[in-house]
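Anyone up for a design puzzle?
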């Protein structure tokens, strides 16, 4: 029996020795992916603004048993359906005995991203044939815009899986139409239950746009769509029904929020993907420029291109400008880019390789230089700048972090020192470079970044006052992220002082130095003040 491991997702222990190289590469890819995905999930406080909303929602689920309509403290409106928060809360409950809740909840990202990578590998197998799964995964994790986003508590991480499952279903349609309809239905449901109306519209619009091409206009495809719509309806209806039953006014407002915006965001997204999706974007452009005449006949280009157009159309006409909206563009561009790797000529491949080496080498050097300055106060100017930006954090040497960062840096150097550079090794080098930058940043700079973004000390002090005096507090001039972090660290949702449903005896106000306490609190007495060194504003806690 002959075994072939060109398809990267079907490893077999009986593989002959001649394929040992590919098997080793596959194992190394899994190790690289695991290290990249795990690093940065634990070991730091919730960072605003990305994580503040999600951690408040997760606490609302755990603390108040809010299952159907959990909301962040700053919200009076549902922004995303709660699927991502459910899973994050489950991970939080499971691992919080040994980890802080925010760290435990972040581990849920491993669940979503692992399934996303597997789905991406399956897509490329169907569209491009065996041997492209690993390359698609490397392009995806090498996308520079994903580094921080996929390591954060944001629902878009779950929406990615919904998108990739739907694309896999479309790629599987010609070979297994019924199975494809099931995958499409569940993938679309995941996208909706984590991201809301916009992701579902993107997926459905993609399926409609495919009818432009002759090979999709047939009775079987309409049956495929029909079965998928039935599954979608059955899966999402229970949450929609309960939402409408419990909060009908809020439900109507939520539906109305999905209307088209008068301000189009095409330029915002086009400019964003220019840097967010490297190296997928240049590889995809290269391939399309070579094979644009084949689009009309090849599903491997039809599906990702149509999905890309649908993404740009929906996200540019619905919603607000938000960097997280750029995340799903990495999926179709990675699928297209896979076909462009082997089409690169020697000069272009070498240029891309050297560009990655120079960029990541320079960034890595700056990270090590900043860390060295904080440890030794040399160079003085860099130390002073870092000290100020980290809110006067006093650096401590952490041996394990240093050793891990050093090993990863040396491995990156070893990976780029090769006698022979191939097209595929260029992508590997890029992904390893991204991983090196991320790991060294997290290992060496997390204490400095955490100190800059951390509100734990401030709100822990507030919590002590709340425990003494009241479980209710008015908030004034706090940002949404500050209100959410106040909820997370104190367990108390701040209340707008204009509301008359509560008679809070405490008020937390954020003030600039030159500002006076609002008139409505003039007769209240000051019981505590606090300020983060990095902030211009300070907090004042008043008692009635």
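Challenge accepted. My sequence:
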């Amino acid at each position: 029996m002959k075994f072939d491991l060109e398809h990267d997702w079907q490893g077999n222990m009986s593989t002959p020795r001649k394929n040992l190289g590919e098997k080793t590469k596959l194992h190394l890819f899994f190790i690289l992916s695991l290290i990249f995905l795990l690093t940065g999930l634990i070991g730091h406080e919730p960072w605003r603004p990305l994580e503040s909303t999600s951690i408040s929602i997760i606490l609302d689920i755990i603390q108040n048993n809010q299952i159907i309509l959990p909301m962040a403290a700053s919200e009076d409106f549902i922004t995303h359906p709660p699927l991502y928060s459910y899973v994050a809360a489950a991970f939080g409950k499971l691992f919080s005995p040994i980890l802080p809740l925010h760290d435990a909840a972040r581990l849920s990202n491993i669940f979503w991203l692992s399934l996303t990578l597997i789905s991406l590998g399956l897509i490329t197998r169907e569209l491009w044939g065996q041997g492209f799964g690993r390359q698609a995964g490397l392009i995806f994790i090498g996308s520079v815009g994903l580094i921080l986003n996929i390591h954060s508590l944001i629902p878009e991480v779950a929406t990615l899986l919904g998108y990739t499952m739907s694309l896999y279903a479309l790629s599987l349609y010609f070979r297994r139409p019924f199975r494809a309809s099931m995958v499409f239905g569940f993938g679309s449901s995941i996208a909706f239950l984590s991201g809301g109306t916009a992701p579902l519209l993107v997926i459905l619009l993609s399926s409609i746009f495919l009818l432009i091409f002759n090979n999709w206009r047939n009775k079987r495809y309409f049956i495929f769509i029909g079965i998928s719509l039935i599954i979608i309806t059955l899966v999402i209806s229970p949450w929609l029904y309960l939402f409408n039953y419990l909060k009908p006014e809020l439900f109507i407002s939520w539906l109305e929020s999905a209307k088209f915006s008068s301000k189009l965001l095409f330029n915002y997204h086009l400019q964003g993907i220019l840097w967010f999706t490297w190296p997928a974007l240049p590889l995809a452009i290269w391939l399309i420029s070579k094979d644009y005449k084949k689009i009309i006949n090849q599903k491997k280009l039809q599906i990702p291109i149509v999905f890309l157009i649908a993404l740009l159309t929906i996200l540019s006409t619905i919603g607000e400008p938000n960097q997280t909206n750029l995340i799903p563009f990495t999926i179709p561009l990675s699928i297209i880019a896979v076909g462009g790797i082997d089409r690169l000529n020697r000069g272009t491949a070498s240029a891309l390789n050297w560009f990655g080496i120079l960029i990541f080498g320079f960034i890595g050097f700056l990270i090590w230089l900043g860390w060295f300055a904080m440890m030794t106060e040399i160079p003085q100017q860099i130390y002073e700048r870092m000290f100020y930006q980290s809110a006067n954090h006093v650096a401590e040497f952490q041996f394990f972090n240093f050793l891990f960062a050093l090993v990863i840096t040396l491995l990156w150097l070893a990976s780029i020192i090769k006698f022979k550079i191939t097209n595929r090794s260029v992508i590997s080098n890029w992904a390893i470079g991204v991983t090196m930058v991320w790991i060294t940043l997290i290992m060496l700079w997390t204490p400095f970044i955490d100190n800059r973004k951390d509100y734990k000390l401030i709100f822990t002090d507030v919590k002590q006052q709340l425990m003494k005096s009241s479980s209710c507090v008015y908030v004034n001039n706090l940002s949404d992220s500050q209100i959410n972090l106040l909820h997370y660290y104190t367990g108390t949702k701040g209340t707008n002082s204009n509301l008359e449903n509560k008679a809070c005896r405490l008020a937390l106000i954020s003030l600039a130095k030159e500002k006076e306490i609002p008139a409505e609190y003039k007769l209240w007495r000051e019981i505590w003040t606090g300020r983060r060194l990095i902030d211009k504003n300070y907090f004042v806690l008043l008692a009635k």
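A detail worth pointing out: Residues 476 and 518 are 9 Å apart (CA to CA).
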